[in-house]
Design goal:
Elements: E1 10-13, E2 19-20, E3 26-28, E4 33-35, E5 40-48, E6 55-56, H1 58-63, E7 67-73, E8 82-86, E9 89-93, H2 123-148, H3 156-162, H4 169-179, H5 200-203, H6 213-218, E10 230-233, E11 235-242, E12 248-252, E13 261-264, E14 273-276, E15 288-295, E16 302-308, E17 317-318, E18 323-327, H7 332-336, E19 344-345, E20 353-357, E21 360-368, E22 374-382, E23 398-405
Antiparallel strand pairs: 1-2, 1-23, 3-4, 5-6, 5-11, 7-10, 8-9, 11-12, 12-13, 14-15, 15-21, 16-18, 16-22, 17-21, 19-20, 20-21, 22-23
Length: 408
């Protein structure tokens, strides 16, 4: 039963022709298409610390190397360190492995924030490389701007050198200076064939003080030096936009403590959810009976039609006519009710509908699995919630291709 409830057994086709479970898809009501993380823009809305919940602007987070200066982690077990005071002095300690800043070379601090961190010896060289990359970006941007307005400014240079009637000489000289190639001030590292031999005794001088690999990865500059507390990484909060219509699909409320969505277009709330009811029995040279359950998780009535995919030649086919259903909206109060609700069951073998219970319907399909164990279904649905049109017109039929994996 655990395999049946796994969402990877039923996959939906996205607008970019990729297959995903319904829980990984979004639905854009503006262009009426399904979206996934591959065909949507994933943007960082804001950065915050998951421990102290302090929000940091993106520019300030970039300067702080995406680290929180108030919260620290243990360099050994990654547990959050807490502050202890001895008189007017404070130190950090770990409640799991009992590591403290006394084991390091950090003296006692009078404040509980801004603990000293080890400086990177290559920081100056990295800053020079960063400045060079910014200069190259400015040159590329200025080249693109000059190509846009090259037709209109044929004799701009000659006219500016003769007269400066409109005070454009300063901007012209500034743009010309930007176009110049920057001088390389960083040291050039040349490769050499002579490589010095590595002395193993220097690396493994004391076997008792050899640190685990995970600890060395967290602090690569602290080799053969006392460990220091690690600053907490900032957590990004993301927003998702549609690439085609540029509308927000997922956006949270402002504030790191907010758990409600300002905009939420999950595909599960708009597209009927199809699941396997029981494990199918595959028999050779015989048709297979497949039991599916269809649920409507939206807040409006939805019409559903199940039929075979005409363009799927390599998938299994079901030997039945199209099934048309009408599902009522989901009722959260009824799901919380403790009294059991009656379930309508159909005992006839000709009717494809097996049971009806609120917004869920069970259907029975007869499939031919001689060529493949993947059942291809074309799911058509229509509802008033699927479109953002203001005109009073009947809802249009939308469809999604589904493939059901009959074997795990």
């Amino acid at each position: 039963m655990d395999n049946i409830s796994h969402n990877r057994r039923v996959e939906y086709e996205c607008g970019c022709n990729e297959w995903w479970p319904l829980s990984n898809l979004f639905f854009c009501c503006h262009c009426s298409k399904t979206r996934c993380h591959s065909c949507a823009y994933v943007e960082i809305d804001q950065m915050f610390c998951s421990n102290c919940l302090e929000t940091v602007p993106p520019g300030e987070a970039r300067l702080k190397r995406n680290r929180c200066h108030n919260c620290h982690q243990c360099p050994v077990c990654e547990t959050i360190l807490f502050v202890r005071a001895v008189g007017e002095n404070t130190f950090l300690t770990c409640g799991t492995c009992r590591w403290t800043t006394k084991d390091s070379d950090i003296p006692f601090q009078t404040t509980s924030t801004n603990w000293p961190m080890r400086e990177n010896p290559l920081e100056k060289e990295l800053n020079l490389v960063e400045d060079q990359l910014r200069g190259f970006a400015l040159i590329e941007k200025s080249k693109r701007d000059t190509m846009k307005f090259s037709k209109r400014r044929s004799n701009t240079a000659s006219s500016l050198t003769l007269t400066d009637r409109y005070n454009l000489q300063f901007s012209y000289q500034k743009r010309k200076k930007t176009m110049e190639k920057p001088t390389v001030e960083a040291p050039i590292h040349e490769a050499s064939e002579e490589v010095p031999e590595l002395d193993i005794n220097e690396v493994c001088s004391n076997k008792r003080e050899i640190l685990p690999l995970e600890t060395l990865i967290r602090q690569p500059l602290d080799y053969e030096q006392p460990l220091r507390p690690v600053r907490m990484l900032l957590t990004p909060r993301k927003a998702i936009r549609c690439k085609e219509c540029d509308h927000n699909v997922i956006k949270l409320d402002h504030g790191p403590c907010a758990f409600k969505y300002k905009v939420q277009y999950f595909a599960r709330n708009y597209i009927p959810e199809v699941k396997l009811s029981r494990e199918p029995e595959l028999l050779r040279d015989q048709s297979t009976i497949v039991f599916l359950s269809i649920a409507n998780q939206s807040m409006d009535k939805i019409d559903v039609k199940l039929e075979h995919q005409s363009d799927s030649k390599e998938q299994a086919k079901f030997k039945m006519e199209p099934i048309e259903l009408s599902l009522p909206p989901a009722d959260e109060a009824a799901d919380l009710c403790e009294t059991p609700l009656p379930t309508t069951r159909i005992d006839t073998n000709t009717d494809p509908v097996v049971f009806r219970r609120r917004h869920r319907v069970g259907v029975r399909l007869e499939a031919d699995c001689s060529n493949s164990t993947v059942l291809g279904i074309r799911l058509s649905y229509r509802s008033e919630l699927l479109s953002m049109q203001t005109e009073k017109s009947p809802p249009e039929w939308l469809f999604s291709n589904i493939r059901v994996h009959l074997t795990n």
